[in-house]
Amino acid sequence: MLNEAIQALEADVLDRLLRYVRIDTQSRADSPTYPSTPGQLDLLRLLRDELLALGYADAALDRYGYVTATLPSTLPADSPAPPVVAFFAHVDTSADAPGRDVQPIVWRNYAGGALRLPGDPTQVLSPEESPALATHVGHDIVTSDGRTLLGADDKAGVAAVLGAAAYLIRHPETPHGTLKFVLNPDEEVGHGVDHLDVPALGAAYAYTLDAGEAGEVEDETFSADSVTLRFLGRSAHPGYARGKLVNAIKVAADFVAALPRDTLSPETTAGREGFVHPTTISGAAEEAVVRLIVRDFDTAELARKETLLRDLATTTAERHPGARYDLTVVEQYRNMHDVLVHHPRATALADEAVRRVGLEPLHRPIRGGTDGARLCAMGLPTPNIFAGWQMIHSRREWVSVQDMGKAAQVIIELAQLWAHER
Ligand SMILES: [Zn+2]
């Protein structure tokens, strides 16, 4: 792309980010509705309207909150059609830091050093804490004012998708097959694509724009299960409990204390190592519940970790005569590599698109899940591409305007690369 076009794209993507982050779209894990919060629908309606205004005649918001839009092929009608490719980003933001009344700040031409966020003097963004800052001198950096998260996860991805959609419809000379754009709610609470009608979307391949560092192309996630472990005791009046009371709280506490400490925990593992992790504990003397998550890149390892939990629960219950337990496992998501290995072009073309915008592709296993992992399991091969965000889920979250511009360029390059595939 020409320099002028790149600058226009960066300006457009920044403009969109600043508009989108002002809408509170935090999702909520405990909500009975879908989307989980009404603010997400405010942004989704805005995005549908922006797509309609750009000329996307079929842009629509369905009853679950999915916004979809189609860009018809620009290839000659008599040539064989390439695969339909979709681009996804999620509108919701994390509940790990405040997300209402976001006041974005653009630090033009970042000169290096620490950025003191003016809304809260304790929030100082520094290259010591976020080493990527050091490689972004000269970039335009967007942060919040320090009182809230920014929401670049994943509004940087939304801005990149909309920016590319705007560019492509205004440049019909760009050769590409049929493209789909999808904006979805509730990724952060693990329900991003629960109600998506994948066959109706009609895409053969997809990409989520929901990774951090510029250049990242992710094709591997954890495989994930959740485990609910219910300890049953026997309650009795504490004044007359000798020989009768079996306190489930103590059984559950013993179990948690017996979990591996130096290995197999989030705080002691990195890279390709998996873990078991207690997320909540609740209960009373009669019954106490420990919920855990189990993670590994090797799907078969999940069962071994679950056996370890079962064995620990058995020996713990044995130490408390009269205590019992039951353990249930629920599948959460699977390593998308298990699917993507059968569709090598999806990742290879993403790597090529990243090179075309002047970056080196970075492959890192994701120590988490993405909507792409779910989409892979639903039959739609979906690697994850960078949107540029850094320090997400914190008040010191930031994103470079130039990196967001690169993300939009990657979409535009991918559209053209897929035009040659059959
Ligand atoms: Zn995200």
How would the blueprint of this fold be written?
Elements: H1 3-20, H2 38-54, E1 60-61, E2 67-71, E3 85-90, E4 105-107, E5 115-116, E6 124-125, E7 141-143, H3 152-170, E8 179-184, H4 198-201, E9 205-211, E10 217-218, E11 223-232, H5 248-258, E12 275-283, E13 287-296, H6 299-318, E14 324-333, H7 337-340, H8 344-356, H9 371-377, E15 384-386, E16 389-390, E17 398-400, H10 401-418
Parallel strand pairs: 3-8, 3-9, 9-15
Antiparallel strand pairs: 1-2, 2-8, 4-7, 5-6, 7-17, 10-15, 11-13, 11-14, 12-13, 16-17
Zinc ion (ZN) binds next to helix 3.
Folded structure, characterized:
- Helix content is 31%, strand content 20%.
- It has two domains: 3-220 and 335-418, Zn peptidases (Aminopeptidase, 3-Layer(aba) Sandwich); 224-332, Alpha-Beta Plaits.
- Strand 5 and strand 6 form a beta hairpin.
- A seven-stranded mixed sheet has the order 1-2-8-3-9-15-10, with helices on one face.
- It has helices at 3-20, 38-54, 152-170, 198-201, 248-258, 299-318, 337-340, 344-356, 371-377, 401-418; strands at 60-61, 67-71, 85-90, 105-107, 115-116, 124-125, 141-143, 179-184, 205-211, 217-218, 223-232, 275-283, 287-296, 324-333, 384-386, 389-390, 398-400.
- Zinc ion binds at residues 90, 153-154, 187, 210.
- Zinc ion (ZN) binds at residues 90, 153-154, 187, 210.
